[in-house]
Design brief:
It contains 17 helices and 21 strands. By secondary structure, the protein is α+β, with helices and mostly antiparallel strands. Helix 16 runs antiparallel to helix 17.
């Protein structure tokens, strides 16, 4: 009988003969290359030199953009630090905290300080102080004294107690740009008693950009994240956008308030390039063509750190090409010879080397698209042929793994869908639960059984733990859930209810599998808790009024071990009025530190209940989970067992708000 198995067929197609290793083939190729005249080697080095020169030039422009951005950043940081230092000086604090009738006594000292700072720092256009109402009371410019500046964002932020750095603002009367650094002045009681504002002269930003040594006809430009040009040697481009602004971007800037313009015009740059500059998060380079002249330009850019601006260095492509053309002309004759030899060598060698690799590449692309029937033809005896054979042997294994992974994803979705999607809305109870399986599927189970139809204000909480985890535990969990749900309504005696789950589970599960289960019925009106525990850990109860933690436990064996077991009910009357109940599985307290370290145990749970009993149940659940992650060394560390947490809080009933418990 013919063997039609694909792996067998692939092996049968393997060519027989003496394998010539690819290393020998490369050695022959290198031998051929060594016979090429020295002039060819010189040309190759020249071509590498061309790329190196170009890459170096681009790197230099990017570095220049980065250095310029750093210099502007340093200026912004220095002025911001100066503003912060001045706002905390005793002279300014006493001046702002003084009553209006006593303020004139301190005015000369403040005025001298403002004038000295402006005189010694040419970067500062002005500095002024306002009172707690945003009215100027001292300034290096008389125009600010008595002026109400509350309409400015930088003043509003400072009066709220925040430090603020404005965008570039252009004076309506002077037409001069500036950046405002504002912050609160606080008295000894930390009350905002005024503000101190420093205006950085916008010309200083322009000077930094213009002083950059670009060379040739290049220049430096500064734009913000909306693509608006803030600095450029061509004044006609200032405060225009790189590309036309859409309505969403136009609405983010008040052209009249910020720049004294009716609207933001555009210089017509390509929108794609404009977006790259606006979104730049690291330095880089791009090229573009000037529509008016057709000239190709290179733009290298670098984002700033302390302002959301981007520095761009623009230079014509011709400035790059000029030194390269001379080197290219010197190599033209050698390049012709190299082209002839390369063509001959390519014809002779490309078919031999490229074809099997291309076939393997095509097969890999088909495999990446999900075609598991693909096989790559093996036609060589070297390492490429061995790689092809290994690829053909690998494809069926990948198909099997893909099918298994898909099945696990479906199983995970089904199992997670079986857990409760919403919490019963019962007056006086705050309930939250969470399940984190160790694998794609798990053996933990929790559920809420709403019993209000038969017993007002009553809910049953079920928490179970199947031995082990993974697919077998998940299947047993689904069986147990079905049995519980089938017997949940109408409710009967708890022992009979659990026995009705135990007997079928015993007959339907292997001897090595069993399930611990806690079913607790909480009657909110009389604060009574009835439970049956089939080998499950006790309920942890915290009483905030007594600051006491205690446990309520049952005494029965796990489900699936012995049929016809007579289960007993534990009743706890009069739960504390503000009790917090914690149900869980041993995946919580048996969590280990990394490298098989100490167990988490239950003491940390007691501490969390004490510290967070005033929070809602969902918050308590998440705090416990995050504490478990931290204990085992992080959320990405291996989880050895399924984790289930259910928290139930007794809260005041809305019917009794006038008489809170």
């Amino acid at each position: 009988m013919a063997d039609t198995h694909p792996q067998t067929a692939a092996k049968a197609d393997k060519p027989q003969g003496v394998a010539l290793p690819i290393a020998i083939k490369l050695a022959l190729l290198l031998l051929l290359a060594s016979l090429v005249p020295l002039t060819i080697s010189t040309v190759l080095n020249g071509r590498r030199g061309l790329h190196t020169v170009e890459a170096t030039a681009l790197h230099g422009l990017e570095l220049l953009a980065s250095v310029t951005a750093t210099e502007i950043d340093r200026l912004i940081l220095d002025i911001g630090n100066l503003q912060s230092l001045m706002s905390r000086s005793d002279t300014v604090v006493v001046f702002c905290a003084a009553t209006p009738e006593h303020r004139n006594l301190h005015l000369p000292g403040v005025q001298r300080m403002l004038d000295n700072i402006k005189a010694t720092n040419p970067d500062i256009a002005s500095a002024f102080v306002t009172d707690a109402d945003g009215i100027g009371i001292a300034s290096t410019s008389e125009n600010n004294v008595g002026q109400d500046l509350n309409f400015r964002k930088y003043m509003q932020a400072a009066l709220r107690g925040e430090r603020y750095t404005s965008e570039v603002l252009v004076g309506k009367t002077t037409g001069r740009p500036g950046i405002y650094f504002s912050g609160p002045v606080r008295d000894e009681e930390d009350t905002v008693v005024g503000t101190l504002v420093i205006k950085l002269a916008g010309e200083r930003i322009h000077a930094i950009c213009n002083s950059a040594d670009v060379g040739g006809t290049g220049f430096v430009s500064l734009t913000d994240r909306l693509g608006i040009i803030l600095a450029n040697p061509n004044p006609d481009t200032l405060y225009r956008s790189l590309a036309p602004l859409d309505e969403s971007l136009r609405s983010q800037v008040d052209a009249e308030t910020r720049y004294g313009l009716d609207r933001i015009e555009s210089i017509g740059l390509d929108p794609g390039l404009a977006r790259k500059l606006m979104d730049a998060d690291a330095r880089g380079s791009e090229s573009f063509v000037v529509p008016q002249t057709g000239e190709t330009m290179i733009v290298s850019y670098a984002p700033m750190v302390h302002r959301d601006w981007v520095v761009s260095v623009v230079k014509p492509r011709s400035d790059f090409d000029r030194p390269l053309r001379q080197l290219q002309r010197q190599q033209q004759l050698s390049l012709v010879l190299l082209g002839i030899l390369a063509a001959v060598a390519g014809v002779l060698l490309s078919k031999h080397f490229v074809r099997p690799i291309q076939r393997l590449t095509d097969a890999a692309l088909r495999l990446a698209q999900g075609d598991y029937s693909v096989r790559a033809p093996s036609a060589t005896h070297d390492e490429v042929g061995q790689l092809t054979n290994a690829f053909n042997d690998m494809v069926p294994q990948l198909e099997q793994r893909a099918q298994m992974a898909n099945a696990l994803r479906v199983a995970e979705e089904i199992q997670q869908g079986l857990l409760p999607s919403e919490v019963p809305d019962i007056d006086g109870l705050d309930i939250a639960g969470l399940n984190v399986p160790a694998d794609e599927t798990g053996g933990d189970y929790y559920d809420y059984l709403d019993l209000r139809q038969w017993m007002p204000g009553t809910v049953a909480v079920a928490v179970g733990d199947i031995t082990g985890h993974g697919i077998p535990a998940a299947l047993l969990m689904c069986t147990a859930r079905s049995l519980l749900r089938a017997r949940a309504t109408p409710p009967g005696p708890l022992p009979e209810f659990i026995a009705g789950v135990n007997n079928p589970l015993y007959h339907d599960t292997p001897a090595s599998r069993f399930m611990t289960l806690m079913v607790a019925v909480l009657e909110r009106p009389n604060r009574r808790l009835r439970l049956v525990s089939a080998g499950h850990d006790p309920v942890i109860v915290y009483d905030p009024d007594e600051d006491k933690v205690f446990e309520i436990e049952g005494h029965d064996i796990p489900l699936g071990i012995q049929p016809d077991w007579e289960f007993t009910e534990t009743v706890y009357n009069e739960l504390p009025p503000r009790a917090v109940l914690l149900f869980g599985t041993d995946g919580i307290w048996e969590t280990r530190r990394p490298n098989e370290g100490d167990l988490y145990e239950k003491a940390p749970l007691h501490d969390i209940l004490r510290q967070h009993h005033h929070d809602d149940a969902n918050t308590i659940v998440n705090v416990i989970l995050q504490d478990l992650y931290a204990f085992r060394g992080g959320e990405d560390q291996p989880q050895l067992d399924d984790i289930t947490i259910v928290v139930v809080k007794l809260t005041p009933e809305t019917d009794n708000l006038s008489n809170p418990v």
